[in-house]
Automatic annotation (TrEMBL):
Record GO cellular component, one term: plasma membrane
Transmembrane segments: 17-36, 42-62, 135-157, 163-181, 188-207
UniProt KW Transcription keyword: no
Lineage of the organism: Bacteria, Pseudomonadati, Pseudomonadota, Alphaproteobacteria, Rhodobacterales
Organism expressing this protein natively: Rhodovulum adriaticum
Matching PANTHER family: INNER MEMBRANE PROTEIN YGAZ (PTHR34979)
Official protein name in the record: Putative branched-subunit amino acid permease
Amino acid sequence: MPASTVKSAYWTGVRHGAPFLLVIVPFAVLFGVVGTEAGLNLAQVMGFSVLVIAGAAQFTAVQMMSDNAPTLIVLATALAVNLRMAMYSASLTPYVGDAPVWKRALVAYFLVDQTYAVGHARFEARPDMTLAERLAYLFGVITPICPMWYVMTLVGALVGQEIPPEFALDFAVPITFLAMVAPALRTAAHVAAAGVSVVLGLALAFMPYNTGLLVAAVGAMVVGAQVELWLGRRA
């Protein structure tokens, strides 16, 4: 494999990952602010971002900790929010499953929503990519995203209190997920799962500690799987 081809794949990944900085920066700053407001010290805020590196789960856990939810509920909810990572991993296995263990471990650690979204789309569109090119592309996407997540979390934790509320940093959370989820709604099963998750999430909002989200997630997966099986039988 020519080194130039692998290098080209890497820089293509960097270019494809760079636009996500528009949401990563305010998203990370917002977590730094929320974490410090919840009473976490600087080391704890940064530990969250470095060890968990999953924005949605981090926000969920901090919010529930602020509400004095039981530790078991906090852990269960954060894990449920991050169950999508297991599905991401299974989806990428056909493309990078033959890589050495240490490379797969790095991919797993840096597997965030944005990495998966552009990586999977690229691999589906370019089935002729080699394993080396796929890995280079993924690490290219990671390069502008993950280090900036750490840096801007630190900025938010240190100076977030000085950011005017008019900046409305919280816009980054829904915009990020809308931008990633909307293009993926390509089949009836996807649409059904998304619809059920929204309906159940709203209907069960009264449940304590946001446990309604757990029920909504399970319900959405069941409905999506059943719709896919039904369509398969019809075909």
